């Protein structure tokens, strides 16, 4: 008998004001898998993250984590298993990197008002993994974009999650910092068997790092499969409504998606 997938989304519908944003969405994420969710604007990617973190509840269907329905888990219990790295971090007051990482220990501190030695050790370990241990006393607003993103990742790792959800993790980052984040995610997945769900507009990032991809359009699943199966020219042109070219990366052999830009005459 094959093991239960870590995450199972089965026949999920969700909408706002009578209009569905997601319809009959079903997929599974295996343990220790890197799974990418891609799709055009308004395809339902952000709504899906909110459902996976109980910000919203499905109007139909079910989401299960490790075989247990999300509806049966409290928010604290869920936060001990699922951590989120949001696209934008909004803070009500200034924090240092260490203070942000310690926030990741709150789900494990039920009945306690202050962090203990174990919490501090786990926060330092997470900061070391994310490459920000030497920045522990630095205020977040003094960091570069890449440093800040790694600090947010340290907070998520301090939760000791089974599942890491990332919403556009490399947006606003330069090439070097994009490379660092991707390298860190690969290392965490390989060395710690961490399951990762990555939501991204960057088709090439998703195609390079993910074991499988889910393509959403109009709130529905269009295709699930390997990068070769999903990043296919005709399918992408139909979903995104623009001409593209797909070639193989000479380094990895994975698909590389390129927009066919309008020429000078066409753009007039």
What does this structure look like?
It contains nine helices and twelve strands. It is of the alpha/beta class and 268 residues long. The strands form three sheets. The chain has a six-stranded mixed β-sheet, sandwiched between helices. A four-stranded antiparallel β-sheet has the order 2-1-4-5, with helices on one face. Strand 4 and strand 5 (68-69) form a beta hairpin. Helix 3 packs across helix 4, helix 4 (117-130) crosses helix 5 (145-158) and helix 5 (145-158) runs parallel beside helix 6 (175-192). The longest helix has 18 residues, at 175-192. The chain is globular, with a radius of gyration of 19 Å. The N and C termini lie far apart (61 Å). The model has no long low-confidence stretch (mean pLDDT 91).
What is this structure's SSE topology?
Blueprint: E1 7-16, E2 19-29, E3 34-38, H1 45-52, E4 60-65, E5 68-69, H2 75-79, E6 82-85, H3 97-103, H4 117-130, H5 145-158, E7 163-167, H6 175-192, E8 195-199, H7 203-209, E9 212-217, E10 220-225, H8 227-230, H9 233-240, E11 244-248, E12 255-259
Parallel strand pairs: 3-8, 3-9, 6-7, 7-8
Antiparallel strand pairs: 1-2, 1-4, 4-5, 9-10, 11-12
Helix pairs in contact: 3-4, 3-5, 4-5, 5-6
């Amino acid at each position: 008998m094959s093991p239960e997938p870590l995450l199972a989304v089965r026949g999920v519908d969700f909408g706002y004001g009578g209009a569905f944003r997601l319809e009959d969405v079903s997929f599974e994420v295996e343990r220790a898998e890197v799974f990418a969710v891609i799709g055009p604007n308004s395809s339902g990617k952000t709504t899906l993250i909110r459902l996976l973190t109980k910000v919203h509840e499905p109007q139909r269907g079910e989401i299960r984590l490790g075989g247990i329905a999300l509806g049966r888990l409290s928010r604290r219990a869920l936060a001990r298993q699922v951590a989120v790295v949001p696209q934008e971090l909004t803070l009500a007051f200034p924090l240092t990197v260490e203070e942000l990482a310690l926030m990741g220990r709150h789900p494990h501190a039920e009945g306690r008002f202050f962090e203990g030695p174990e919490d501090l050790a786990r926060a330092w370990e997470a900061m070391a993994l994310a490459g920000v241990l030497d920045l522990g006393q630095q205020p977040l607003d003094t960091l570069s974009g890449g440093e800040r993103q790694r600090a947010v990742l340290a907070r998520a790792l301090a939760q000791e999650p089974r599942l890491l959800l990332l919403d556009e993790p490399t947006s606003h980052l330069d090439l070097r910092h994009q490379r660092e984040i991707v390298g860190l995610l690969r290392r965490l997945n390989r060395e710690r068997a961490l399951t990762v769900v990555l939501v991204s507009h960057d088709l090439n990032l998703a195609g390079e790092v993910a074991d499988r991809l889910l393509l959403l359009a109009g709130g529905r699943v269009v295709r699930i499969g390997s990068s070769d199966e999903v990043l296919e020219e005709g399918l992408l042109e139909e979903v995104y409504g623009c001409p593209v070219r797909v070639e193989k990366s000479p380094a990895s052999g994975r698909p590389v998606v390129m927009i066919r830009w309008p020429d000078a005459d066409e753009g007039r």
